[in-house]
């Protein structure tokens, strides 16, 4: 039952942060100098009547705090407002675009984990050998390169020069193959992977590099632990020590890093979606910014902030679940 | 001096000659002993030198020939051209490949851009924007974060709680998204590099605040703070004279690494069109322009990315080296 109470506690702790996100977004959106309605209309010639109507529709004639409370009331009921440019509810727009972004971010994490953990372990067990140096250089380049440029280079090599992979768009596995004109589900799956490969690597490289650095340090530390010495003294084979004794302990910090890196990954998704022409939340955000679509921008920022907070809570809970040393209810 | 103090607190049984072993000079020599850190320092020094030179050149030219002069001293050298001026039709060849290419020429070692400007000059001048943005916005975050973190950590209790909730809130929104929203709204829909610098700086205040706070929490318990309190020194003065100088070293390391992160983010911002605006030469913005020429001129997308990569790698290597040199656990 301890875990349940711990979970509830973490959720309660997150409430001020979630409120804070809405406050920041709201203040920023209202910081804009000049008349927001005119800004929204971007210099289009409209008569006074239209402006007055829009102001009434959005309640812009009322004081700021009143508007905030109304907005929050709506948010709590799951209403993120109405996009003036697209004339559709913000939630509907977000729901439509969430799939591609989730697919991209999750696959990038899968790629990062699948490469970073083995490479980190290899680097740790062959410390200061050539393999270690190479993997450290890879990690260094990974943290020093802009994700969008990795995307550009990947497109230049694999799409333009070699022509092996497509350079833009995604294929969604949840749609029917007929929609794309594919012969069946195997082709749909194949095309999904083909389209996802480059953006996944572009977004995942930074995660891979950071995770690999952490994995290496953790493994080195773990391999020096008393329990490893004891296991060695008992003559446990080195492979078993690595797999059973050192590995598990070393994974705990990785979980925390994954949660915290979600912020970078979501920000990176904006750039990756732009480079690869993917119709996800990131592109939606850029389009909203371009047209100064207030409600949509606020909605997206709140949703992304919430995604991060939820992600951190999930990793915290799984950490507590996996590591018996964490006492529930304690501050992190 | 400040650094020296910080180090002696951590080490056990400091030797007689504390200044010699832990001062600035010692740190510097430690960094120079480390091959990778030394190369990092060389890169940082080169980039700083180049951007200082181009900064002085463009400003001196303006002072000498008036604000609207279309001339830089650098272009009198055979290797440079004017970074912004577009050559009149028929004079400069557009989209020229780099010199090692069969169609290239040595007068444009990296080729020319779609407007016929020398790409090498633009890459060199691009350092100025990246570096100044990196340093200025890191400085904003550093100063703001130091004040907030020091106050928060020193007073603790409610002040600390409130400030840390604020910090967590800003943390929750991916920096790129927060900065774009800030830049676009505060500038009233016409973003440029000044807003980007401000936005990045303010966004990173919480990051610094968090680090300095945790340092302050340990410094706060030191005997000399107790002694200062007992002798009636005002809290404000204790924070200024004792707390901040003694929590300084880790933050300094972090700041060096943060400059790299900042350059990375500003490159992304400019790439999306929310940072430096044309015709200002900026690496991110150049990648934005070259995005439309990926099929016709591959090299346009390569050079700015490489410049970003090398610069950030320099700051990262130097920062890592500084960390090792300042970390007392590794020093003994």
Automatic annotation (TrEMBL), chain A:
Keyword Cell membrane: yes
Transmembrane residue ranges: 12-32, 102-125, 137-164, 196-214, 252-276, 296-322
Superkingdom of this protein's organism: Archaea
Chief site of localization: membrane
Record's bilayer topology term: Multi-pass membrane protein
Keyword Membrane: yes
UniProt domain ABC transmembrane type-1: residue ranges: 98-319
GO cellular component terms listed in the entry, alphabetical order: plasma membrane
Family per similarity comment: Belongs to the binding-protein-dependent transport system permease family.
Name recorded for this polypeptide: ABC transporter integral membrane protein
Protein source organism: Natrialba asiatica (strain ATCC 700177 / DSM 12278 / JCM 9576 / FERM P-10747 / NBRC 102637 / 172P1)
UniProtKB/TrEMBL annotation, chain B:
CDD domains recorded: TM_PBP2
GO cellular component: plasma membrane
Membrane-spanning intervals of the chain: 39-56, 135-157, 169-187, 193-212, 251-276, 296-319
This protein's UniProt keywords: Cell membrane, Membrane, Transmembrane, Transmembrane helix, Transport
Compartment list: Cell membrane
Pfam families: BPD_transp_1 (PF00528)
PROSITE patterns xrefs: ABC_TM1 (PS50928)
Highest taxon listed in the record's lineage: Archaea
Membrane topology listed for this record: Multi-pass membrane protein
Biological-process GO terms, alphabetical: transmembrane transport
ABC transmembrane type-1 domain sequence ranges: 127-319
Family, as annotated: Belongs to the binding-protein-dependent transport system permease family.
Protein name (Swiss-Prot/TrEMBL): ABC transporter integral membrane protein
Gene source species: Natrialba aegyptia DSM 13077
């Amino acid at each position: 039952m301890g875990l349940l109470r711990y979970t509830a506690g973490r959720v309660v702790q997150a409430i001020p942060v979630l409120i804070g996100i809405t406050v920041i977004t709201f203040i920023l959106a209202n910081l804009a100098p000049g008349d927001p309605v005119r800004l929204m209309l971007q210099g289009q010639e409209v008569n006074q009547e239209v402006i007055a109507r829009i102001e009434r529709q959005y309640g812009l004639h009322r004081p700021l705090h009143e508007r905030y409370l109304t907005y929050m009331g709506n948010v709590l009921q799951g209403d993120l407002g109405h996009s003036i440019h697209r004339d559709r509810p913000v939630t509907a727009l977000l729901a439509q675009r969430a799939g591609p972004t989730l697919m991209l971010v999750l696959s990038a994490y899968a790629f990062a984990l699948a490469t970073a953990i083995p490479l980190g372990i290899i680097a740790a067990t062959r410390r200061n050998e050539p393999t270690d140096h190479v993997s450290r250089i890879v990690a260094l380049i990974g943290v020093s390169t802009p994700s969008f440029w990795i995307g550009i280079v990947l497109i230049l090599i694999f799409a333009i020069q070699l022509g092996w992979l497509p350079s833009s768009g995604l294929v969604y596995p949840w749609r029917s193959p007929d929609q794309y004109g594919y012969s069946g589900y195997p082709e749909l799956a194949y095309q999904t992977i083909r389209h996802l490969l480059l953006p996944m690597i572009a977004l995942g490289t930074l995660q891979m590099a950071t995770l690999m650095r952490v994995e290496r340090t953790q493994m080195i530390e773990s391999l020096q632990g008393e329990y490893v010495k004891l296991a060695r003294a008992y003559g446990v084979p080195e492979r078993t020590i690595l797999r059973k004794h050192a590995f598990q302990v070393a994974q705990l910090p990785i979980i925390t890093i994954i949660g915290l890196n979600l912020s970078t990954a979501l920000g990176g998704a904006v750039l990756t979606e732009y480079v690869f022409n993917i119709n996800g939340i990131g592109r939606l955000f850029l389009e909203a910014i371009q047209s100064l679509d207030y409600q949509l921008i606020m909605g997206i920022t709140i949703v992304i902030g919430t995604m991060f907070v939820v992600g951190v809570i999930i990793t915290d809970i799984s950490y507590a679940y996996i590591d018996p040393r964490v006492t529930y209810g304690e501050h992190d | 001096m400040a650094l020296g103090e910080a180090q002696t607190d951590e080490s056990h049984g400091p030797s007689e000659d504390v200044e010699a072993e832990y001062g600035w000079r010692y740190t510097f020599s430690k960094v120079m002993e480390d091959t990778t850190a030394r190369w990092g320092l060389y890169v940082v020094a080169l980039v700083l030198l180049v951007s200082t030179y181009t900064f002085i050149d463009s400003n001196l030219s303006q002072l000498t020939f008036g604000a609207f002069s279309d001339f830089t001293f650098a272009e009198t050298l055979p290797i440079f051209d004017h970074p912004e001026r577009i050559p009149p039709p028929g004079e400069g060849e557009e989209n020229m490949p780099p010199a090692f290419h069969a169609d290239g020429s040595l007068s444009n070692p990296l080729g020319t851009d779609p407007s016929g400007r020398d790409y090498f000059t633009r890459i060199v001048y691009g350092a100025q924007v990246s570096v100044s943005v990196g340093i200025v916005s890191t400085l904003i975050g550093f100063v703001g974060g130091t004040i907030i973190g020091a106050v928060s950590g020193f007073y603790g209790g409610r002040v600390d709680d409130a400030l840390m909730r604020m910090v967590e809130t800003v943390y929750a929104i991916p920096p790129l998204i927060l900065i774009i929203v800030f830049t676009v709204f505060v500038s009233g829909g016409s973003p440029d590099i000044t807003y980007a610098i401000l936005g990045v700086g303010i966004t990173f205040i919480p990051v610094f605040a968090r680090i300095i706070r945790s340092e302050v929490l340990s410094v706060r318990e030191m005997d000399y703070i107790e002694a200062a309190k007992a002798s009636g020194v005002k809290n404000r003065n204790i924070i200024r004279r004792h707390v901040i100088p003694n929590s300084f070293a880790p933050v300094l390391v972090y700041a060096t690494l943060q400059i790299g992160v900042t350059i990375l983010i500003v490159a992304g911002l400019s790439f999306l069109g929310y940072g430096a605006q044309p015709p200002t030469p900026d690496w991110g913005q150049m990648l934005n322009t070259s995005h439309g020429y990926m099929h016709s001129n591959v090299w346009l997308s390569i050079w700015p990315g490489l410049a970003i990569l090398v610069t950030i790698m320099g700051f990262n290597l130097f920062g890592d080296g500084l960390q090792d040199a300042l970390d007392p656990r590794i020093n003994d």
